[in-house]
Design a protein that fits this description.
The complex is a heterodimer of chains A (137) and B (201). Chain A is of the alpha+beta class and 137 residues long. Chain A has two domains: 1-40; 42-136, Sandwich (Jelly Rolls). Chain A has one helix at 3-37, and strands at residues 42-52, 57-58, 62-73, 78-84, 92-99, 103-121, 128-136. In chain A, strands 1, 2, 3, 4, 5, 6 and 7 form a seven-stranded antiparallel sheet that branches. In chain A, strand 4 (78-84) and strand 5 (92-99) form a beta hairpin. Chain A is globular, with a radius of gyration of 25 Å. Chain B has 201 residues and is α+β, with helices and mostly antiparallel strands. Chain B has one domain. Helices cover 28% and strands 28% of the residues of chain B. Chain B has a four-stranded antiparallel sheet with strand order 1-2-3-4. A three-stranded antiparallel sheet of chain B has the order 5-6-7. In chain B, strands 8-9 form a two-stranded antiparallel ribbon. The longest helix of chain B is centred in the first third of the chain and has 25 residues, at 2-26. Chain B starts with a helix and ends in a 6-residue tail after the last strand. Classes of the chains: A alpha+beta (137), B alpha+beta (201). The interface between A and B is large, with 45 and 49 residues.
Chain lengths: 137, 201
């Protein structure tokens, strides 16, 4: 009997459950990571941008927008995020304001040719804070 | 043959358990954390029912971004309907839906420790210039005496206050017309909670 072959065959048999288990583990882990990420379809137009108080950051014209999100790294004041039509109406489609620190998000019916903007505010005392803002496609 | 089947079954079981263990660890909250958050928002301690999950039909995107099992309906008042939820490791969230128009669903989330210190404030809508299409609400930690905020004589919209009964410490006011002002109110442990309305934040 070829001893080496027998040992290898035995080892191979012993590893099968482990390998199969590894595959199942990876599949389960992948579902956990990929499923939430699948919802993320957004365009970030300010990524921790140092921004003066009450000065808006703008997304530029977007083909479709269905919501927006913003977060300011600051323990006081508020953060406001909005979506709106540009010239000539500049009418607001949706907005949300929340106290800092928090992440404020809103969703609305998907509309074409909109803009997004965001700003932070604190009594008008001025200063700078890092703001992150995005629009949802 | 039977041995091979056993091996596959064993491998499958080991893999599934290992995967679930890793996922559970990546998800929020130890039992202690959950218990603390349940104290801050009593609705989390109740069993989830169909009404709680109604947010899913209102906005599957908003619902999908939250911890689905944590979503609880807490009331309808004025122009909006409200839910509380958890998100990620330990975030507490307030959700509002303003039906009609642009069907705005707004969410604000903060880590539990920030929520404990400051609560959550949210004003949202189709336009800040249209009060009928917008809403303003405050979710306070469960140990804060909301009565100290809404029962003051200068508050003009007390009728909208304390919308959620014992499920959450929710105050709903008319945007821009509430008359709310900063207030120092009591917590159950005798310490103070500094309330700041959005108009003064």
């Amino acid at each position: 009997m070829n001893f080496d072959f027998a040992v290898k065959a035995e080892l191979s048999r012993a590893h099968k459950p482990i390998l199969f288990g590894l595959v199942v583990f990876l599949a389960v882990a992948l579902v956990g990571v990929v499923a939430p990420a699948a919802n993320a379809s957004s365009y970030t137009y300010a990524q921790a941008e140092l921004t003066p108080e009450r000065q808006s950051r703008y997304s530029g014209l977007r083909s479709t927008i269905s919501g927006a999100e913003a977060y300011t790294i600051l323990g006081v004041g508020t953060t406001t995020v909005q979506t709106y039509y540009g010239y000539p109406g500049y009418s607001v489609v949706g907005f949300a304001t929340s106290n800092n620190p928090s992440t404020v998000t809103f969703y609305h019916l998907r509309k074409s040719n909109l803009y997004g903007s965001c700003f932070w505010s604190y009594y008008g005392v001025g200063g700078y804070a890092k703001i992150t803002c995005s629009v949802k496609n | 043959m039977t041995k091979k089947r056993n091996q596959i079954a064993l491998g499958s079981a080991v893999g599934t358990v290992a995967g679930l263990v890793v996922l559970t660890a990546a998800l929020p909250a130890s039992a202690a954390e959950r218990s603390d958050i349940n104290d801050l928002v009593p609705a989390f301690a109740t069993n989830q029912n169909a009404q709680d999950r109604s947010l899913e039909s209102v906005s599957s995107e908003a619902f999908g971004a939250l911890n689905a099992d944590s979503v609880r309906w807490v009331g309808r008042k004025g122009t909006a309907e409200y839910w509380v939820a958890r998100k990620g490791n330990s975030n507490v969230c307030l959700v509002m839906h303003i039906p009609g128009g642009m069907e705005v669903v707004a969410v604000t989330c903060a880590p539990a420790e920030d929520f404990y210190r400051k609560g959550l404030s949210l004003e949202a809508g189709g336009s800040p210039d249209e009060p009928d299409a917008s809403a303003e609400a405050y979710l306070l930690p469960g140990d804060v005496d909301a009565g100290g905020i809404v029962s003051r004589p200068e508050l003009r919209t007390a009728a909208l206050a304390a919308a959620a009964g014992d499920r959450a410490n929710l105050i709903v006011v008319e945007p821009g017309k509430s008359g709310l002002s900063q207030a120092e109110v009591a917590r159950e442990d005798g310490s103070g909670f500094h309330f700041v309305p959005l108009a003064e934040a």
